[in-house]
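Re: [ENG-882] Designed sequences occasionally contain unexpected residues at chain ends

Forwarding the minimal case from QA. Structure tokens:
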């Protein structure tokens, strides 16, 4: 069975899209959360967001070509270009039949749907753009990335809400392990911090309403947390078989050792309060990686700052790791960048790889008054130095989807 290694990473986040600069900002405890600039913003329950308004496709695609792509697709193409560049991949020298794209989205082109529906209502059906469907469909990111590189192997999207990216990476790793392909561009992208997105999640009382303190709004595991902050962004990783990467003398950033996917089977939005499904996903990932729980040095928690979710994850970690749950370093980088929904897992997997490389546990900022029910070492407020050889990344989504990754330092 082929070993699966990571040779390139690209991301777009509310803190920027240069991986090294974003990682530095995360470790310094900076926040990318800000107040939304919308008309009548005061009518929304939640008025804060992790947007990527700085982002431009300049340097990635010609402007006319980029305009035909929805925002989440633009993020995916930019992240893929950066990841491929870091990997040093030359697709003209690669068998494209043995390359794949598995990039998901939890929601897809919500902004385009809003825009075109408004045109439909105000101006009639003949004014609706012919691009609305290809721009909005959730598989548009995977499809356009495969078109950009003329990749002719498998290309598809995964959509499992907030577990999307981890699910996509797990699928990508399986394709390589099975020997079906040599290279996969994989991850997730989201651009749902729109008026409808904010209103919809706000109506569910899922979002933080700490509108007067945007940078302090995302408070995973804190007693005074009141919901997550909706964010945009994307993460893409280049996965390769070890043989393929070594043959072209690529620099290896880390290894995907194990994946675990489960379902709660209980409720469409609320997590299993005991964290049973999440626990099983973690145990599956550990078993797949063939490592013991006590070998995990760092866990990048799902940690969205919802009342129920943070407690359920704490219980799940305790059940999966036993006494080691109190010894592992844990943090939620959503405290800095908010919740990217389908893009979160890939961005957080990249953070795990960088944590291993640098021996730094990123902090959970805003964790000022720990919830007594969230009593693990959640690395409050400031980063910490620690040797990290193995890390786990957790992602749990609406629909009861659970996904976990185990990533490690690459060694011969």
């Amino acid at each position: 069975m082929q070993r699966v290694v990571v040779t390139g990473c690209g991301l777009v986040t509310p803190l920027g899209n240069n991986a090294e600069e974003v990682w530095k900002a995360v470790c310094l405890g900076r926040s990318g959360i800000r107040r939304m600039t919308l008309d009548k913003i005061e009518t929304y329950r939640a008025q804060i967001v992790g947007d990527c308004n700085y982002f431009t496709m300049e340097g990635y695609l010609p402007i006319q070509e980029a305009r035909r792509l929805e925002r989440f697709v633009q993020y995916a193409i930019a992240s893929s270009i950066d990841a491929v560049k870091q990997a040093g991949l030359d697709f003209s020298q690669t068998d494209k039949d043995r390359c794949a794209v598995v990039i998901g989205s939890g929601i897809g082109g919500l902004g385009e749907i809003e825009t075109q529906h408004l045109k439909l209502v105000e101006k009639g059906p003949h004014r609706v753009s012919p691009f609305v469907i290809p721009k909005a469909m959730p598989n548009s990111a995977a499809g356009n990335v495969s078109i950009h590189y003329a990749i002719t192997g498998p290309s598809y999207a995964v959509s499992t809400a907030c577990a999307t990216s981890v699910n996509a990476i797990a699928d990508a790793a399986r394709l390589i392990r099975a020997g079906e392909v040599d290279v996969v561009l994989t991850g997730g992208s989201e651009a749902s911090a729109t008026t409808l997105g904010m209103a919809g999640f706000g109506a569910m009382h899922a979002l933080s309403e700490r509108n007067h303190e945007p940078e302090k709004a995302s408070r995973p595991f804190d007693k005074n947390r009141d919901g997550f902050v909706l964010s945009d962004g994307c993460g893409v990783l280049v996965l390769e078989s070890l043989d393929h990467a070594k043959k072209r003398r690529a620099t290896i950033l880390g290894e995907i050792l194990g994946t675990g996917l489960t379902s709660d089977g209980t409720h469409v939005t609320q997590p299993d309060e005991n964290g049973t499904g999440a626990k099983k996903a973690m145990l599956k990932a550990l078993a797949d990686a063939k490592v013991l729980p006590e070998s995990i040095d760092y866990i990048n928690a799902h940690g969205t700052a919802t009342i129920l979710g943070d407690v359920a994850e704490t219980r799940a970690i305790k059940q999966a790791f036993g006494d080691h749950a109190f010894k592992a370093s844990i943090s939620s980088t959503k405290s800095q960048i908010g919740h990217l929904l389908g893009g979160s897992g890939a961005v957080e997997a990249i953070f795990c790889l960088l944590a291993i490389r640098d021996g730094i546990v990123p902090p959970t900022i805003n964790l000022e008054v720990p919830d007594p029910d969230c009593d693990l070492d959640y690395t409050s407020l400031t980063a910490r130095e620690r040797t990290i050889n193995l890390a786990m990344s957790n992602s749990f989504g609406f629909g009861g989807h659970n996904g976990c990754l185990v990533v490690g330092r690459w060694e011969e």
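QA comment: On inspection the terminal residues look reasonable. The chain has two domains: 4-247, 259-408. Proposing we downgrade this to a documentation issue.
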